[in-house]
Amino acid sequence: MHTMNLSPDQQFSLDQTLGCGQVFRWDKTDAGWWYGVVGRHVIKIRQDSRKLTFEGASVPFITQYFSLDLDLQLILETIDRDPFIDSAIRRCQGLRLIRQPKWECLISYICSTNSNIPMIRRRIGTIAEQFGREIIFEGKKYYSFPEPSAITCSGGKALAECRLGYRTPYVFNTACAIGNIKQWEETITSMAFEAARRELMKLSGVGPKAADCVLLFAFQKHEAFPVDVWIRRIMQQHYIRNLSITSGLTGREYDCIRRFAREHFGEYCGYAQEYLYAARL
Fold this sequence. Notes:
CATH topology of the largest domain: Endonuclease III, domain 1
Strand content: 5-15%
Order of helices and strands: EHEEEEHHHHHEEHHHHHHHHH
Number of helices: 15
Helix content: 40-55%
Strand order of the largest sheet: 1-5-4-3-2
Mean pLDDT: 94
Distance between the termini: 35 Å
Structural class: alpha+beta
CATH architecture of the largest domain: Orthogonal Bundle
Low-confidence stretches: none
Radius of gyration: 19 Å
CATH class of the largest domain: Mainly Alpha
Number of strands: 7
């Protein structure tokens, strides 16, 4: 077991961060412990005031994964530009964006289309169980998330058993297209935001929202502002009152919202998006 004491300037809430819907493979027990699979490791962690207690990972890994090296106060000061976002910041104090494994994040958000969080969790868990490596932790079975080759080598029929619906060919074709994860990660990382966004949207099943989620949560391009039905409603009610709302979110509306957000909240508008989303209830 490792322990880590947060410094006074390290605002952090483990519950807000893991419970806001940005990741799908973490669960909290009644005893206050969070369990999650990251890469090939199972991590067990809890927070007691300013103290983190954990196993399955090193202090540097926890620092990097939970973005504890970023000055959260400075980031929040840059986006705190109106009473509504100020309220969201106060209600979700300590929420940080996780640095998610890039390939897993991509597939997670391909699987998220037209779905709720429980369904996304089920799909990701099923893919891991079907193609990933078994990990035994505290006597319980967990599964790592598979690399693209594990999916492509098994074939589309094996993937169909995961019951992803119409997303099955999207996942399979994207696994075939990427192949070398490291090379793909380096390519996207090196690109400017808009170029990286266009490149991601060339992949099967990756639309504007999935691309923005991957850029924000996996590549730390904080100018990304994913727009779903909740964010669309919030932006129309509190920020862009003349926004024409149709039955479906059009590409024009999506671009209008994300560009307004970039201008209004600044270079960390992705943090504003997550605080607005997390505070919606």
